[in-house]
DNA sequence: AATGAATGAGCCTTCATTCAT
DNA sequence: GATGAATGAAGGCTCATTCAT
């Protein structure tokens, strides 16, 4: 992929990213404890000493990996919702799920979620950080949308927090299904996710029949 | 089940179970690789060598733990659905979620799900086994219910597989939320789960308005 | 040295001592940093994991080694001086040096002194501890003796602290000479130490000529 | 010695010396094994690779350090004694100790002695070299002085080798005290060293009473 | 059946050393 | 000359596993 300068060209700028990519793959596959730095290094095309030039130790590399995954996950969503403000809330919800699919689920970064869940009790501070920076931010956005939907008269008045989690559930589950039980599972997330969202939205709408014909390509 | 010398519960027959209980706690908390046999032994009130009298090695203990958790999880559900056959499908679905909450979520066994997800790629055969014995069995039951609901005219005709996963999502997510991000998260599963199911069911019903007044204590 | 029970007989009581003996040899020879736990283990006839059954880590083993060497070094001296109380102070001083020779210099433990000096700046707390428990206790005993000698009219009135160090110097130097530049050095400590003490004592005495004929076997 | 661009002292000729100075400090503080080349380089204001431009490897740097410290330590002493030849031997001895204090003890170079003692068994050839070039040369000078003192009738006839070491002992001990147990030790070498020498000399003199009034500022 | 001393493979981490720039 | 990215050997430490008691 690189211009043919030298085999092991010194490229300080690229290294941390390459190592983080490798760490994502290896940590994601094996979990924190079972992943060895040497495996990560090999995957990154370097030797076992090199990661320590960029990360203090294994834990530090792990934390850096989590942190690096956060803004791409969350920032884009905020932006999307700003642009979609004027749409019907039902459409915004579908768009949110679509954004999640495109920017998390279909991304190698999605495995971070599984990793965080597996390691939450081993790294409580990291877990708290991830929760406040990712989970809660998404939760807040969803809650705001639902509140808006109720205010605009699109949705029935209903407990906002509960529905927030009702919407979060398929997002999380889709990721876990992909990474944990993916092999030979026919209804892949892209198949069931749109239908599920539609059912949920229909359950929220005051006039459900109208919504049934929403253009499916939005999710 | 306890008859002689109940005081110190040091009867040989109890040992494997005690060790499995300890393994559930320690594996659940730390994950497979970070859990040490000695920790498990200590938690079980025995010493390092004892687990090896009952389990060939660490992997074997792990597999036994997964397998031991399977029938209590699934068998009861089948039974419940047999008894509930004559109820409206919507109610059966609510009952199914209620069963899940009572017999999995509120149980120490629920952590197995998190464990399986974390270790799926490290133990593919175990993961496959768990999937076919637990996930698919639940999926099949849900699919059958939804099909029945459509046949009976309770539910709109809709893709069954998709909705199956729409229902599975909150079940899985509730468990993970409890074990991974539990600390200080107000909307606990018992709060949002019933509402979510109700919204989903409303989204499925042909005549949604009727369902809104379902007795909430069913889930 | 052991009865022919088994090759690797389990003998928990003896192990810590054996490992400390090995640590004394290896640390003494190579210094703290250059000594490897595996070397120590091999010397003790065990494998590299075994030391960790008895000592938390390398530093802990090092500290235990220092501490274990302290009471044999100091306690006997106190006792000797109690018994020798009624002798002329000059004789007590000679006896003290003789005690040092017998119980420190001629002992494998003597290398601890060199070790402490080499590692003092790497283990400041240990150094402080050694200083207060060994060096200062010996210093105090010497100072008390000299004071007594002055009071009894045996010694000229002279700065006590200074002379304390004048007496300590050959004790320390003898040890270091033995361990650092020992190879092919003819005047071994046993040769020059008695003469040196005699000269020092003669320098202290009010009537030096008398002392010149002190029985040499006392030191 | 500094002529052009004195400001940043980055002249090539100065480098080896700067690195040796840094090596002296770092080796002296941590010992050979615990000192890292990078620490030394940093202290010298250069980077990791630079020492290798001037020294083949770590061991080579260490040896060069020892060798560089030798002539300043020994040469001056020979010179001093040549000039002092006509003085009473007792005064020459005091002068020798004074020279040691000024040119070794009060010098950063003094730490070499501690270093050599700590590393003697790790670098036997270096130790032998140091012994023959430093210790033995000083020993020889001292022995010659004492012999002279006896010949001149100043000193009692006594074993020369023994007394040589009796005089060497406080010189060595003073250095070690300074570098190993220096913190908060009140009788610093400058306090006890002159008194000690005086007592030793008094022990050597044929007519001790005369010597007691030697001017104390000579040592 | 249970213990726990001992083993040794494996992994994290450091650091002397090299070399392309 | 100087840099500093990269290497890889070495060593601290853990822990699954064994086995004599």
TrEMBL record, chains A, B, C, D:
Pfam families: TetR_C_11, TetR_N. Keywords: DNA-binding, Transcription, Transcription regulation. Residues 13-73 form the HTH tetR-type domain. The keyword Transcription applies. Signal peptide: none annotated. Residues 36-55 bind DNA. This is TetR/AcrR family transcriptional regulator. It comes from Leeia speluncae.
